[in-house]
Amino acid sequence: MAAVPAVVAVARSATHSFSKPTVSSVELIEGVGVAGDAHSGPTVQHLHQVRKDADRPNLRQVHLIHAELLDALTAAGFGVGPGQLGENITTRGVDLLGLPVGTRLHVGSAVVTITGLRNPCHQIEEFRPGLLKQVLHRDDDGQVERLAGVMGMVSRSGTVRAGDPITVELPAEPHHTLTTV
What we know:
By secondary structure, the protein is α+β, with helices and mostly antiparallel strands. The chain is 15% helix and 31% strand. It is built from four helices and 13 strands. The chain is globular, with a radius of gyration of 15 Å.
């Protein structure tokens, strides 16, 4: 039986640290992101992207990872818990990587619109040697697979807590496959 889509954990960090400590709840602010998180803001906050173009819209206001990935990483010998890969919301029962661009996730009292894939970087390797190959590799057809979650923008403000249900609202067709943001 498939898991009912739900929030497993929420996390935030006021600094640009790699991992984020879990907290009891987060406030999502429309057009900004997670209140109190270093990556919130209407324009890019990721340090690498700020250097390129600080005025670009922030398509990475919220980072979501599926707990099923954490389960697989733990089974592979990489003990990884919620928030440790830098995500704000850890989910279960939602195929995040299979969602199209523009999918709206109703989570808690907030709505997050999915903008794209997280592009795993060297910080994952620094966090746990060998982990980057687990979340960034080529499939049997030679296509690059990025497994480190998805990014989104806050479309409706609200509070999100562990245990909150998640409802998936697909965008109108045609659907567009997620690419990195």
